[in-house]
Amino acid sequence: MLETLQLGFAQLSQTEVLISLVAGSFLGIVIGAIPGVGPGVGIVLLLPLTYTMDPLAGITLLMGLYAAGWYGGAIPAITINTPGTGVNVLTTYDGHPMAKSGEPQRALSLAYASSFFGGIFAVVVLMVAAWPLASLAKYLTSADLGMAALLAMVLVVVAHRGSELASFAMLGVGLFVSTIGLETAYGSPRYTFGSIWMMGGVPLISMILGLFALSQAFTLIFSTRDIDRTDTEVNRKILGGFLEILRYPKVLFRSAGFGVGMGVLPGVGEFLAQFFSYTTARAGSKEPKSFGRGAPEGIIASETANNAVPPAALVPLLALGIPGEAFTAMMLTVFIVHGVDPGPTLFDEHRGFVAGLYLSLFIMNFIIVGILLAGTRWIAKLATIDDRLLGVIIMCLVMVGTFSRNYRLTDTLIAIAFGVLGFALRRANIPMVPLILGLVLGPIMERYFRQGIGGAAGDLTIFVTRPVSLVFLIVIIALLAMAGRNVVRRLRAA
Questions:
Q1: How many other CB atoms sit within 10 Å of the CB of residue 475?
Q2: Of 43, 80, 232, 285, whose CB has the highest number of CB atoms within 10 Å?
Q3: What is the pTM of this model?
Q4: Cα dihedral angle (246, 247, 250, 254), rounded to 10 degrees?
């Protein structure tokens, strides 16, 4: 343990890592505090920059955006009843009523303290769970890991309850797009239609920037949001919540547990963790009628759960090399670009990197809270920026980012095409996350399946004779059966 800490501090002593730690935390708060933008857009816009950075610095920058965004998103949710990010929706239920009753500082303090506890709790779980899981993963074969990747895809589809068919279709689109270009085994072109520029496949950066950032820019340009600027007035007396949350230990630990549990599972994410945390907190409260009217337990449940998710989502990525949602899928590309292979070997070959990542995630929460305590009164003003101006700025950044990557106009045109597609999917409420995961997980699953079948001399029964692979297969069949039953029930009810 002492050796790990020494390795971690050695990594953090690098100037680039320290700058990334502070910059990611600050930018995440700022982006989260601006309604309609969110950390996803920030991560996508900065993704090309991280390819030129040291791997730890790049991952730290993205994780800072990811984690701090949920902290910052609570500010407009409480002050103007407009969630800064999609996962701060439930914070408005009790945060804004508390603010309207004359206690905005108390509501913000509870949100910050709860987010801090959830983040620290999840980092400790990551430190405890990822290393043993990676040790166990060393005994998994290619067939097992290929089936695990397939299970992750199925979980992503099933997690979108009520839109399973749409999620399955988007996953299929992502898998198809991942096959475009030269396949790795024999170098034969697939779906290139004779175009040389398609030999390298669809650029991941262009696709992600289009789907997430450009589609969000279009949404902001057509926004009609109206803001009362006087609602953003707060002062800096917001330390009380760090003691008040201790009055609700059951809500704290239960919500943090939901966040960690939902974060580890692929495709589940922050909102479901929030929902379970909030509903169980209300069910177990002595005053359930106070929920929705300014109940402190409501703020604690919501903010603790959503901030416990980001570190927990790294567990399957670091231990197995399998991302569970869109943000960790983007982070996987940073690993790949720098030749760092996440999975069981990561903890042996890059111990310093892992130790530095653990320590940076832990310290990050202190930096974020420090920035919020010092600057909330000014950060709250960001919620009044005009949506259309933000949309134009994001659009310009996307154009520059896609073209400057390879200096090819086709990359920008691909981003525009996926931006239009993403905008249409947003308007139709069709999930985009399965599409991204299909694109990222597709090559991973294909590689492991090739290796597994090749190692078994073409014998497909390897997937049922291996105990771990068989368990994954049984779980996949059970999940698909339950999802199919739910779809049939809804169709009959309609």
A1: 14
A2: 43
A3: 0.75
A4: -50
